[in-house]
Design a protein that fits this description.
The protein is mainly beta and about 650 residues long. The protein has five helices and 33 strands.
């Protein structure tokens, strides 16, 4: 395996200069939304964006969104056990809670979790049609939490009078997955309904290499729906809803040793999101207005049948948002995006115990009011400049402002032959509001300020061989200050320790990240495509006085690479091999618990059948690599899966 890993690393490094992973070198003329909150051709966007469209999602055969995101530049994932377990996404070395996640226009970050991040564990590719990943601090346009970047996810919409699609698959670890979606367009009405079911026996969350014996499975049901009704060509109503209900086994720290071990504990997670929007177009479509109301609810319950009461923890986090956004086409080459938002977040959480089966729950709420504006203009042929700013007022810490600027330049040579050169550069500021738990829990600190960051990147994308190949390279950097961390009241004692003897949250951390993303893609022969990307991320703890000063940030490998090769055969069959490499990292801030590097190899194939059916299958982790993304937590070994999908 050592020799194989060496060969794969060499291949990854070479291909990163001449090849690339899914959609990182996005086709010129493709339209993206996440960069500016409005549709914009990719060649006019100065920020770094990756697009995963429906074709890329289908070809990957991956069921977990987090696994799909891990194939893109700048992104790494850590999962605490089987599919469905707590899963964190790190973009360009930022904390997982510093990435904003949006599904169908609804902010998904959980206000009831201590750090306020989004758990990707239960999110499946199911009915997802498109994912856009915007890297770097983006708070001027997207607001709080967008320090590492933004992941925007959109479900499918109907495009014909009546249509449907579905799939069913099964395989290793007792895995069963099925989904079905139907929809249609009839005059002014467009609608779609979809549902899915997923179940797996998984593996022990407490890694069997350390003594784990029982599997911790996961089961989830999903429903989604959306409808659009056009009252007139210029006025439409937009409705979207999504519901998850998942339950999985987890392991914990049972008495009397209180060491990590097998337990019969389970965690149930229910999520519901709702979007209601009214769209009004004025002045011949030059001014587009959107009034939206969104609601996101995440409810978590941890149960242990050996305890009385069985419920040992519950948390309910809800976010209600009212927003207005305007998009004004000032001239053919100049566009302004502006808006106002009101966001109210609430938390209710408690940890029942035998000595207090009905504890008084922590309940708290906070409001965030925002106004933002951004203007983008093609100031010269091929040169587009973007600038914007945002002002936020939080009910706890007060006022905060952020700004950003970007430039994109398309060189005039080679455009019509698919050999365009695009230069990009951007600077952005990010901030993250203190969570309700950090403010008001027994460890809370009402004097907390928002986390703040400055980030920048610069890169080039080059089309080659009349569109048959493309390469890109991007340098990025970020500095974060006032990062919230836990302060233990020993041996140092502060005045706040009098009421918080076990410690409290404070703005005591500083971090930095610098790196390079290389990507490319080539089709040397008809039907044969090579993709690859490589990311180098250097992270560092720069917290003054910290015992971890100068150490790497936990669970963020310096080196990560993806390489794939696919071939489309005569008759429509496809075969592919995909390789994912993650370098070594550390599981803790002190850098005393190492996580070894690992290489995963997947084989995939699909074959079209009559009447719109398709047979597909894959082998994941072909060489049965044992690895960890979180210390002592189990991961899947080799697995084989086969399925059937169809469109009608």
């Amino acid at each position: 395996m050592t020799r194989l890993k060496t060969m794969l690393l060499l291949a990854a490094g070479a291909s990163a200069l001449a090849l690339s992973a899914h959609a990182e070198t996005t086709a010129v003329n493709e339209v993206v939304v996440v960069a500016n909150r409005a549709p914009e051709p990719i060649e006019r966007v100065g920020e770094s964006v990756t697009v995963l469209d429906a074709a890329a999602i289908k070809a990957s055969q991956l069921t977990s969104v987090s696994d799909l995101l891990a194939t893109t530049p700048g992104a790494t994932v850590a999962r605490s056990g089987s599919p469905g377990a707590q899963t964190s996404l790190f973009i360009r070395g930022a904390e997982s809670a510093q990435t904003l996640v949006i599904i169908d226009g609804v902010r998904m970050n959980d206000p009831s979790s201590p750090a306020g991040g989004y758990d990707f564990g239960a999110l499946l590719t199911g009915d997802i049609d498109r994912i856009e990943i915007l890297r770097g601090p983006q708070s001027a346009i997207w607001g709080a939490d967008a320090i590492g970047g933004v992941v925007s996810i959109n479900t499918r919409q109907a495009k014909s009078p009546f249509e449907g699609d579905g799939s069913v698959e099964g395989g290793s670890y007792g895995t069963v997955y099925g989904r079905l979606g139907v929809g249609g367009v009839s005059g002014p009405l467009s609608w779609r309904l979809a549902g899915g079911y997923y179940k797996t026996d998984g593996v022990s969350a407490f890694d069997k290499a350390f003594g784990g014996k029982e599997d911790d499975g996961f089961e989830q049901k999903t429903l989604s729906g959306r409808a659009t009704y056009a009252f007139t060509p210029d006025i439409s109503l937009d409705l979207r809803a999504l519901w998850f209900d998942g339950k999985g086994g987890i392991d914990g720290f049972p008495a009397p040793l209180y060491a990590f071990a097998d337990t019969p504990e389970t965690q149930t997670t229910r999520q519901f999101i709702d979007y209601t929007g009214l769209n009004v177009s004025l002045f011949g479509g030059r001014l587009k207005n959107r009034l939206g109301f969104t609601w996101a609810a995440t409810d978590r319950i941890n149960d242990d049948p050996t305890l009385k009461p069985n419920t040992e923890f519950y948390a309910n986090g809800h976010t209600l948002t009212a927003e207005y956004q305007g998009t004004w086409a000032i001239t053919d080459g100049t566009q302004a995006v502006f808006g106002v938002e009101h966001q109210r977040s609430t938390i209710r959480t408690a940890s029942p115990a035998s000595y207090d089966p009905t504890p008084t729950p922590l309940t708290a709420a906070a409001d965030l009011d925002s106004v933002y504006a951004q203007i983008q203009s093609e100031v010269a042929p091929g040169l587009t400049l973007t600038g914007g700013g945002r002002f936020d007022h939080h009910s706890a810490f007060g006022d905060h402002g952020t700004g950003q600027a970007a430039a994109a330049y398309v060189l005039p040579t080679g455009w019509t032959k698919g050999n365009a050169t695009v230069l990009r550069a951007s600077f952005g500021q990010g901030f993250k509001v203190p969570t309700l738990y950090q403010l008001y829990s027994p460890y809370g600190n009402p004097a907390l300020k928002p986390e703040q960051s400055n980030g920048w990147d610069a890169g080039v994308e080059q089309g080659l061989l009349d569109g048959k190949a493309s390469v890109s390279a991007t340098y990025f950097g970020r500095r974060t200050r006032d990062q919230i961390d836990f302060f233990g009241c020993y041996p140092t004692i502060t005045p706040l320790c009098a009421s918080r003897p076990y410690g409290y949250y404070d703005n005591i951390a500083r971090t930095r990240a610098d790196g390079v993303e290389l990507a490319g893609r080539i089709t040397p022969l008809p039907g044969l495509t090579f993709d690859g990307n490589y990311t180098y991320t250097r992270t560092k703890n720069e917290s003054p006085g910290s015992s971890s000063y100068g150490k790497e940030l936990a669970r963020r490998p310096e080196n990560a690479a993806n390489v794939s090769a696919s071939y489309l055969w005569n008759g429509g069959a496809t075969t592919s091999v995909a390789v994912r490499y993650a370098g070594s990292s550390y599981d803790n801030a002190a850098n005393t618990t190492p996580l070894k590097s690992y290489t995963l190899v997947d084989l995939k194939a699909s074959y079209p059948l009559p009447l719109g059916f398709e047979l597909y299958g894959r082998i994941e982790n072909l060489f049965d690599q044992r690895y960890e993304t979180v210390y002592q937590y189990g991961t899947l070994g080799r697995g084989a899966y086969v399925g059937m999908r169809a469109r009608f």
